[in-house]
Amino acid sequence: MSQAILDVRDVQKRFGAVTAAQDITVQVPAGAVYSLIGTNGAGKTTFVNMVTGYLKPNSGSISFLGRDITGLSPRKITQLGIHRSFQIAQLCNDLTVEENMLVATTIHGSRSPSLLRPAHSAEARDKVLETLERFGIADHRNRLIPELSGGVKKLLDIAMAMAGDTRIMLLDEPTSGVAADEKFPIMDLVIDALKAEGVTIIFVEHDMDIVTRYSERVLAFYDGRIIANDAPDEVLTDPDVQKYVTGVTA
Amino acid sequence: MLGMNHLLAVAGTFAVMAAGAVILPDWAMFLIVMALAKGLVCLGIVGMMRGGLVSFGQGLYYCAGAYTATLFANSFGITDIFLLCIVSAVVCLAIGGLFGPLLAGYRGIFFAMLSLALSMVLYGSLSKLSVIGGTDGLNIAAPTFLGWEPEGRALQSGLYLFVSALVVAAGAVMWRYFHSEQGLIALAARDNELRVEYLGASVRKAMTLNYVFGAVLGGLGGTIAALALGHVDPEFAFWTTSGEFVFVAILAGYLSVPAVFVAAIILELVRSFSNLYFPNTWQLALGVFLLAVIVALPGGLGSLVDRRRKREGAQ
């Protein structure tokens, strides 16, 4: 197994009297595909939010390639190469698909966006079109966000997150709100694209078919703790996971 | 910076506006000079609106620019309009640079009220400072233009041409900024700050830049207004003055630069003619006019151009 790209140690997060995450320790090797499973409120999104800087842990540490990133802002963490997509796609509704993607390529393409350099240059638009084509959504480029299906929104959200130099991608429920027949094609597209670039993938998922098919390792969350951390077959047959997470009984 | 087509558009716009110096009567030139001066201030507000913020205190910079030019002219005997504009712009840049990073952390009504509070602090201070005229304000001598000292109609025309050139230049710069990488980020932040931060850009920086641009434009507008009127007083910073700028910005919308100046001229015309024909109820006419615009064009005059662009894009 290669060296850990993400090292989370003894992380705890409290909201008043509620402990949303405790004793979270996990090392994610570079290039791996991890999935996070658990019931609502188990701590999956809290974990994602802490790794990406939206929430600051009360204790513990999070390291990326040996550098302590605990408590850094989302912007700083993103600039390091830890990108994320959202359970509810976070897009700019007043802009077209192309303009949304242009925002992402502009920000990722330049550490210091220019006050004078045109955002809509031919070169920038070509790059955007190339990315949209890669994700199969180029036909929608002139449409506004409210006109799109859930699947296209998800793909655009992920494509935007991937526009830069991504080292780790955290996908928060990439198939939620997506039609059943679109789930696997979308996951194929996303996982293939990310793997092709050697990106480490961590995704939150409720659909166990998707978990089994795409992840190399599963973290099962219950009551703010990781109760299992193993290969999908092992985790999904674990009695505790069956009892507290999947609800499947032998 | 600008392509050939844009340079031609800029030159053409200036040529059309410059023709006004020959054909317009004095009263119309004065009206347009005042409208364009206020339009500069409103262009700054529109810049902030593109980031999702509305400043209700742009009178701060309008007044600061006007007083800076007046005090500089009266203290040093300098009347050159170019120099006065530069000095005012630099002073407002410094003030904007000071307050911008502080205000950039606020959103919605909090930003609007804080900006209003700052302008009212200036209003209150100037009203009490009798050494610089108190509520009576100060007079400022007529401007000169790089050594040229026109009078009468020539002065009016000179000022009109200067303002036209300044408006075209400021409009071109702001248009370039709105369509730049940083301008696009500000526009995206208006819609979804979370997304922008998670792409790795600073929303606070975008808001600060918009605010500082607004400060400089406000200062320039105040300087022109002071020189056109020959007088400044604390009313420049009063909340009704700032409200008028917001009125024009809403009328224009945030989608087009020329729409800002068109809206400013429309407002001046509506106010002048309402005042003429309904002297006791002109504010009512103005209010009805704004209501009609909000109902018919919620995105402002600029949305007329943008709707066409989006339709063409979709096709």
Automatic annotation (TrEMBL), chain A:
Sample GO molecular function, one term: ATP binding
SUPFAM superfamilies xref list: P-loop containing nucleoside triphosphate hydrolases
Highest taxon of the lineage: Bacteria
All copies of domain ABC transporter, residue ranges: 6-248
Record bears the keyword Disulfide bond: no
Keywords: ATP-binding, Nucleotide-binding, Transport
Cross-referenced PROSITE patterns: ABC_TRANSPORTER_2
PANTHER family named among the record's database cross-references: AMINO ACID ABC TRANSPORTER ATP-BINDING PROTEIN (PTHR45772:SF7), CONSERVED COMPONENT OF ABC TRANSPORTER FOR NATURAL AMINO ACIDS-RELATED (PTHR45772)
Protein name per Swiss-Prot or TrEMBL: ABC transporter ATP-binding protein
